[in-house]
Design a protein that fits this description.
single chain, 250 residues, mainly alpha, Arc Repressor Mutant, subunit A, Tetracycline Repressor, domain 2, 2 domains, transcription, TetR/AcrR family transcriptional regulator, Repressor_TetR_C, DNA-binding
């Protein structure tokens, strides 16, 4: 009997399929091409912005582009590759202007920009959760800026990546929670910018009447201001940066 590959064995280089980005760089020019990848990405982003990611299909995208569905598979191998194109299209490194000599400003700007992009394209949260590979050219440029800002600091390569993952994780988590809250508010008829306390009125009244959660009840009775998502995000980013600076002694 022949040897079988162990489930945990690393794949050989020849077994790893080439990414769409490498294929785009190495593909010969063809006279048959009627679309470009930026055109496909822009059409997909427009559909997802208008109808949500769940409404995006290869068939609907093909219709919007005026081509047969199978024609799209000449450009992308799968829905995951389409999502990669879309993510890359909305991540714009050119808007990042913070001085690389100020690592705090660089990381704060990137985190804030991630929030702004997520709010502008609510489907981005779900798309990033579905795509296994987020090493797109635009995201790589953002990572280059983050690494560049950390290069002068006494950090190892692993520490730099821990630093980057910590900020990226916070930005994704906080932005995702805000996007989901806004979508829920809109579905319930309060509008995306409505006061979330309206949504929670029934549950809050039950909480107060139950008598089982005295600390939470006291906070509510003492009065809580409306949620200021932008301010809370800024506080969270600065707290993360302060904590990471202490953790890594920088």
């Amino acid at each position: 009997m022949g040897k079988t590959k162990s489930a945990g064995a690393p794949a050989k280089e020849a077994d790893v399929p080439r990414s769409i980005w490498e294929r785009l760089e190495t593909a010969p020019r063809s006279g048959r091409a009627t679309l470009t990848h930026p055109q496909i990405a822009a059409a997909a982003v427009a559909l997802a912005d208008a109808e949500g990611l769940e409404a995006l299909s290869m068939r609907k995208l093909a219709e919007s582009l005026g081509v047969a569905t199978m024609a799209l598979y000449r450009y992308v191998d799968s829905k995951d590759e389409l999502l990669e194109l879309m993510i890359d299209a909305v991540v714009d490194p050119s808007v990042l202007t913070a001085d690389l000599g100020d690592w705090r400003a660089v990381f704060r700007e990137i985190a804030t920009r991630h929030r702004e992009t997520s709010l502008a394209h609510p489907w981005l949260v779900a798309a990033q959760a579905q795509v296994p590979n987020l090493l797109t050219p635009a995201r790589n440029e953002v990572a280059e800026r983050m690494i560049g800002a950390l290069d002068p600091l006494p950090l190892t390569g692993d520490q730099k990546m821990q630093f980057i993952r910590a900020i990226d994780g916070f930005a994704r988590g906080a932005s995702g929670a805000e996007v989901n809250r806004r979508m829920m508010m809109e579905r319930r008829g309060y509008g995306p910018d409505g006061d979330v306390r309206l949504l929670l009125r029934g549950s809050m009244q039950w909480l107060l009447r139950s008598g089982r959660y005295p600390r939470m009840a006291k906070l509510v009775r003492d009065g809580l201001a409306p949620v200021d998502s932008a301010a809370e995000f800024e506080i969270g980013v600065d707290a993360m940066l302060d904590g990471l600076a202490v953790r890594f002694g920088i």
